[in-house]
C-alpha cells in the first residue's frame, strides 16, 4: 500500500496560545508565541511545486531522492480566538519528518523569529542544519491517500 500510493495528504494542527492546553496535549502542537497567518501563508507558497526537500528531512531518512512534488499547501486559522492553525499539505510522497520540519519552519516565520523569505534559503540550502526545529509529532494526521483507479478502491471525499 505504501509504495502504490500516488498522493498523500496530511494535516498539522497547531494550538497557539500562551498557556499550554491540558486536554489537547498529545493531539495538537502547542506554540506559546502568537502566530501571523499571512506570514505563514506567504512562506508556504514557496514550497508548492517540485523541489529538492533535503533541508526538510531527518538524518535517518532512507529515501533515495529528496525531490518531491507538493501539489497543495495551505495554512488556515480557526477557533473562537483564532488559536487553531492548520497546515494542510498534499504531495506525491514525503520524506521522513518532512511535514513536521515544514511546520517548524512555518511556526518560526509565523512567530516573527524569521522572515518569510527565509524558507527560500532553507529550501535552496539542501541542508537540514539550515532549517528550524522539528515540530512535535502531536498534531500530525494523515488525512487521505490516493491510489491508481486500477485498485478499484472507494474514494472518500474529505
Question: What is the fold's blueprint, element by element?
Answer:
Elements (H helix, E strand, L loop, with lengths): L4 E12 L12 E3 L5 H9 L3 E4 L14 E12 L5 E8 L6 H13 L7 H8 L14 E8 L11
Parallel strand pairs: 1-2
Antiparallel strand pairs: 1-5, 1-6, 3-4, 4-5
Helix pairs in contact: 1-2
In short:
By secondary structure, the protein is of the alpha+beta class. The protein has helices spanning 37-45, 98-110, 118-125, and strands at residues 5-16, 29-31, 49-52, 67-78, 84-91, 140-147.
What does this 3D model show about the protein?
The protein has three helices and six strands. It is α+β, with helices and mostly antiparallel strands and 158 residues long. Helix 1 (37-45) packs across helix 2 (98-110). The chain is globular and about 50 Å long. 30% of the residues are buried.
Mean pLDDT across the residues is: 93
How many strand units?
6
What is the ordering of alpha helices and beta strands?
A: EEHEEEHHE
Helicity range of the residues? Answer: 10-25%
What sort of overall outline do the alpha carbons produce when their principal axes are compared?
globular
Low-confidence stretches: none
Major sheet description: 6 strands, mixed
How big is the Rg? 16 Å
State the distance separating the first and last CA atoms. Answer: 20 Å
The share of residues in extended strands comes to 25-35%
How many DSSP H or I helices?
3
Amino acid at each position: 500500500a505504501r509504495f502504490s500510493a500516488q498522493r498523500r495528504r496530511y494535516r498539522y494542527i497547531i494550538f497557539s496560545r500562551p498557556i499550554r492546553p491540558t486536554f489537547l496535549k498529545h493531539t495538537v502542537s502547542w506554540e506559546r508565541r502568537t502566530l501571523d497567518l499571512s506570514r505563514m501563508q506567504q512562506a508556504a507558497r514557496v514550497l508548492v511545486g517540485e523541489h529538492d526537500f533535503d533541508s526538510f528531512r531527518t538524518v535517518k531518512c532512507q529515501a533515495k531522492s529528496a525531490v518531491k512534488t507538493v501539489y497543495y499547501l495551505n495554512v488556515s486559522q480557526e477557533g473562537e480566538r483564532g488559536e487553531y492553525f492548520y497546515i494542510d499539505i498534499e504531495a506525491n510522497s514525503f520524506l521522513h519528518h518532512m511535514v513536521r520540519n515544514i511546520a517548524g519552519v512555518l511556526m518560526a516565520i509565523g512567530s516573527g523569529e524569521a522572515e518569510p523569505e527565509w524558507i527560500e534559503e532553507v529550501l535552496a540550502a539542501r541542508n537540514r542544519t539550515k532549517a528550524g526545529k522539528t515540530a512535535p509529532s502531536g498534531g500530525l494526521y494523515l488525512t487521505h491517500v490516493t491510489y491508481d483507479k486500477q485498485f478499484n478502491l472507494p474514494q472518500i471525499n474529505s
